[in-house]
From TrEMBL:
It comes from Jannaschia donghaensis. It comes from the Bacteria. This is DUF4178 domain-containing protein. The lineage of its organism: Bacteria, Pseudomonadati, Pseudomonadota, Alphaproteobacteria, Rhodobacterales. Keywords: Membrane, Transmembrane, Transmembrane helix. The chain crosses the membrane at residues 242-263, 386-407. The keyword Transmembrane applies. Residues 61-190 form the DUF4178 domain.
Length: 423
């Protein structure tokens, strides 16, 4: 959309030029012939830059848009470029004007729109130059209005295109350096220390991302953004909900796990006594063949070990197990220095192939401990809670990891920093 404007004729080529920028404009550059005109001296021709190529931007001179209820008009366009080695970065700076709020800048780079204003009360005493950055051994930091800022990048820019009105005197080929700093909160914006080459006035600016700029100015064919801007906040709106969701699933899995444990059938005691009194064979009945079964050996040992040969035979004579189980338990110390290792029990798990009488043979190995109570128990129809415990752990990890993913995304704002610790 465009507002009502007055116009002048270019004193170099005669083209009609809109006058949009208020009484503080001192330069107008013709977009047709490239003539720089002195707005304070009857638009006298100062210089002519022919052959300039207008950079691509969704915003044009005369477009108006509102931010926080304040209407701004696009009055000027600068094409900017930085070259480092074989890499080239290009962006467009548009000067904005509001009759009530003065001048500002709207920058377009990779589709991201950034609103920038000059700081009248900036930390000029801490003006950060590229020379200071080069001398620093760690990323420079500074404070302004209670906020800590850290060095982000240094830009060596060159103006390649000029068109429109400005409250200063821009030139094609003008160069300068901008050092930027950021805080950890994107809402604090970015501070820029601008130092043009040639002794022009140094400035401190503050920038904020303006995602709604294209809509505010009525852009009919909005350009898409590419990549992540350092001022872009990546906080996920669903983060707290997802944390609560996974935490709830973890609690539910734990609760179900305890329910399964509580529903386990009571064990049958097959033998209780001394290992020396073990019978050659222990026969026990199995009726549930749909779930796992378990034989458990328990030996009440203290700083000792015992080994057992275990054989299990099905009702049809099929050998289901012929294995060895060692039980050992050691402990010592007292209070905070107490320690223990090993276990007083071992298990033999199996899936019954059929119902009927099973035969168990448990023989103690010579050299092992023979003192202490010993018992053999059997439990059939066991409910397996392993996957519930595993699910609880997985859901818990997901709930704990989500905030770290958010931190990682926010830290990605700094990936474009050019700071290097290498000398």
């Amino acid at each position: 959309m465009t507002g009502t404007t007055r116009a002048i004729d270019c004193t170099n080529c005669g083209a009609g030029l809109a006058v949009l920028g208020g009484g503080r404009v001192n330069t107008q550059v013709c977009g047709y012939c490239g003539a720089s005109l002195d707005a304070n001296d009857a638009y006298r021709v100062l210089k002519v830059w022919d052959g300039m190529e207008r950079p691509s931007s969704p915003f044009g001179l005369g477009m108006t848009g509102a931010i926080d209820g304040v209407t701004f008009t696009v009055i000027g366009t600068l094409g900017q470029r930085e070259v480092w080695g074989r890499q080239v970065w290009e962006w467009v700076d548009h000067q904005l004007f509001s009759p009530t709020h003065g001048y500002a800048w709207l920058t377009v780079e990779d589709g991201h729109c950034v609103l920038t204003r000059k700081l009248r009360d900036g930390p000029m005493h801490s003006f950060l130059t590229s020379a200071k950055v080069e001398r620093a051994e760690t990323p420079p930091r500074l404070s302004w209005k209670g906020t800590r800022y850290r060095y982000y990048a240094t830009t060596n820019w060159e103006t390649t295109y000029v068109e429109g009105e400005f409250n200063w005197r821009p030139e094609r080929g003008r160069t300068g350096t901008t050092v930027t700093v950021m805080s950890d909160d994107p809402a604090d914006g970015m501070l820029a220390f601008v130092e043009p080459v040639g002794g022009a006035e140094r400035e401190i600016e503050r920038s904020h991302l303006w995602p709604g700029a294209q809509a505010a100015f009525g852009v009919e064919a909005p350009v898409r953004v590419h990549g992540q801007h350092p001022l872009q906040d990546i906080k996920a709106a669903i983060g707290p909900m997802m944390i609560a969701w996974f935490a709830g699933l973890a609690v539910a899995a734990v609760a179900l796990g305890f329910v399964v444990v509580a529903m386990q059938p009571d064990p049958q005691r097959l033998f209780s006594g001394s290992p020396q009194d073990l019978p050659p064979e222990i026969v026990f009945a199995v009726s549930d063949t749909t779930r796992p079964a378990r034989v458990e050996l328990f030996h009440d040992l203290r700083n000792a070990f015992a080994g057992y040969e275990v054989q299990l035979t099905a009702p049809d004579g099929t050998a289901l197990a012929d294995t060895y189980r060692e039980i050992s338990y050691y402990s010592g110390g007292s209070g905070e220095d107490s320690w223990s290792e090993g276990s007083r029990s071992q298990t033999l798990n199996f899936v019954p192939p059929m119902a009927g009488d099973y035969t168990l043979s448990v023989a103690s190995e010579s050299g092992g401990a023979t003192s202490g109570a010993f018992r053999v128990t059997f439990r059939e129809g066991r409910l397996n809670a392993f996957w519930l415990w595993a699910a609880a752990g997985l859901f818990g990890l997901c709930a704990a990891a989500i905030p770290f993913f958010g931190l990682a995304k926010r830290s990605a704002r700094w990936k474009g920093s050019d700071w290097s610790s290498e000398g």
